[in-house]
Amino acid sequence: MEGQPSARHPDWETEQAYAHRVVAAMRAKLAELEGVLRGVRGEIVEFRRHFWDDVTINLSTLDDLVETHFAIRQQAEVLGERERRHQQAAKTKRTLERQISSPFFARIDFQYEGESEAEPIYIGIASFRDEREQEFLVHDWRAPISSVYYDALPGPASFKAPAGMVRGELKLKRQFVIRGGTILAMFDAGLTIGDELLMYALSRRSDAQMHNIVATIQRQQNVVIRDDESPSLLVTGAAGSGKTSAALQRAAYLLYKHRGDLDARQMLFFSPNPLFMSYISNVLPELGEDNIEQATFYDYLCARLQNEFVVEDPFDQMERLLEAGEDSRMARAVRHKASKAFADELDRYVAGLAPQMRFHPILVEGRVIATATDVKAAFDRTDSGLRLPLRVDLVKEELLHRLRQFERDEALSDWVQKAVDGLPDEAYRRAERTAAKRKREQPELDEQEEARRLLGREVLRRTLRPVRRFVETLRFVDTAGMYRAWFEQAASNPPEGFQPEDWAQICRQTVREMDEGTLWYEDATPYLYMKEQILGRAVSAPIRHVLVDEVQDYSVLQLRLIRSLFLYSRITMLGDPEQLVSPHRPGILEEDEMARLFPGLVRVAFGQSYRSTKQIVLFTRGMAHKGAEIQPFDRDGALPQLAEVSGEAEQAGVIALWLGEFADAGYQTTAVLTKTQAEAGRLTRALERCGVKLRRLDKRAVSLEPGVVVAPVYLAKGVEFDGVIVANASRDQYRTAFDRQMLYTACTRAMHELRMVSVGEASPWILSQPADTYERVNAAGVNAT
Ligand SMILES: Nc1ncnc2c1ncn2[C@@H]1O[C@H](COP(=O)(O)OP(=O)(O)OP(=O)(O)O)[C@@H](O)[C@H]1O
Fold first, then answer.
1. Where, in this chain's numbering, is ATP bound (predicted)?
2. CATH architecture under which domain 614-777 falls
3. What ipTM is given for this predicted complex?
């Protein structure tokens, strides 16, 4: 690395003077903004107080009603506009406050082609203009020219501006660490980019929150961040290679580039667990952007399925699997239901479903408006050339028509007239007035009967409301019955092609579970997918960008569902096949299925791992299939340690000892990772008995705080800790290929230090690593080799 040691840099004073100038200008702007904010706030309070003064409420005639409506609307619009102005100013203020502490993090000197001098460009989290001088004191990191900082080395360079490519020469590339307006460190980048600043960033202690990487975005990451052309992106890369970070920076970049046209509510991030949602929730606000929408795939499924079933969550499914074992029927069921063969089979079933469509009858207070057979007959009368959702829609129209007819026909019937007695007096008076008016227009009308008819229809309208809703929301289609029937049929008559040998039993179990009102997690997606095929896809048009993290854990149908629900959205997927911690079959990321579902898919692979020290990466990469491709970042730390102990009490003792050492090292976040929830519970109790203060994370945990946590590995996905202790990393626990992925995921959560303890012989996935990549210690933490 060519670079000047910070303290001796000859330009230090000049740069500090510039930083002071910028900060002073920012402070002045902040004061001005605070004045504006106070003013707008005052206006809002005043406006709210006198909201009704300018509105005359007059509901006498229809014209008056319309006028009143518009007057209220106009007032509300004025108020809304001020509130928006206030929100905008408050947002700018927050960004400015952050900028004042660290006004910029880089400077490039760029000499445009044809110019004789280079222009210094300072880069920060947002741009800042000196309005009097009409010059940019700081450029936004997302501005076109800023890309030179991320992409180029000193020498000829170019960047893409809206009007085309701009060429020139990069004369200087300088990086800063500034806190509280004071320069703490300053590096000039030479042939390699920003390694010192990166080292500075990666050596920090984790505070349980992910942070932005804006000052040290690497060239390959920048490709992903600024890609505004590919319809879909699949970013694969080793643990800690910055996939999630790049995706969040990408969201910030797109929000900036398309500001005014794209807002944060139009971007959706699928997170692996609720904990992760809180872990990343700081990144965008740090960059002055609003948080984008976040959901776990499970939450999304439940929202779509409403309350039709109790849907098992993926963590319970995981526990079920860990208990049953990989060779169990349950595991075979889950794997098969996640496969392409199953997805194709479901597509075939839906394609041939028309003759077997099932419906619920339409009943009103025990009276039959249409039997299930009637509804089926109505369906059969529709044009068989049409797609299922269109045919269902036609049946809906016919049923609504029948409901209207029923309302007309039944108004004078006894059961309805009996219910009329319960109507309020006002309803009687209204009906009598209307009947009298009609009598004047049609003298032959029986006025009393007309009033009774009107009252009867009012009763019916109320009674029919839920039935109408039932029809309008297509709940008359027995989708659950059809999903269930598919398994019933398959149990007695298995479909052609590959099935697990005990498929018939699996099908019967699925039926039993549904009869109890529960949907296993592995059935939730196929069921929803089938439902969307029958009833019509509720395409989520407002969402324009979807980001899917940990995509290696998704099944074929989950991806098909995402594609169909977000048909018009651009999709960015992030994954690492080595971290497959779901019972699904590996390889989904490699398959043609990806290219078929996401036409124009662009794949980007990240090779370098940033999270962990060189020692941790050299050790963990041995567990990965394509480990040789993982490049560690040259940051030194201790060798990972392994202690083999004889029992659980001894294990707790070793962990307590290690936790003490981690605390002495100043680690703020430490995780003790187990395989299962039950183990996490036992270990928590054992550690508490040793006097350790810790927090146990379960699937309901929604935030990560500094300190020691005990959790099963699958809950720590995507998250990182200063120190990680893998509990009971023994042969019994981590033996199979699936276990290897789990162990790899656990070990790669560590930033600075990794320790493993095993009750009995350690896992072969550890023992097969080169002896010089880890250290064996005894229960007292003393080298045991
Ligand atoms: N360019 C960078 N500059 C500074 N830090 C970086 C950079 N890229 C990644 N990191 C850091 O590396 C760590 C891992 O990043 P991130 O979580 O985005 O990786 P990932 O590929 O999503 O990991 P995993 O697959 O293990 O969940 C984070 O602490 C992040 O801040």
1. 237-244
2. 3-Layer(aba) Sandwich (3.40)
3. 0.99
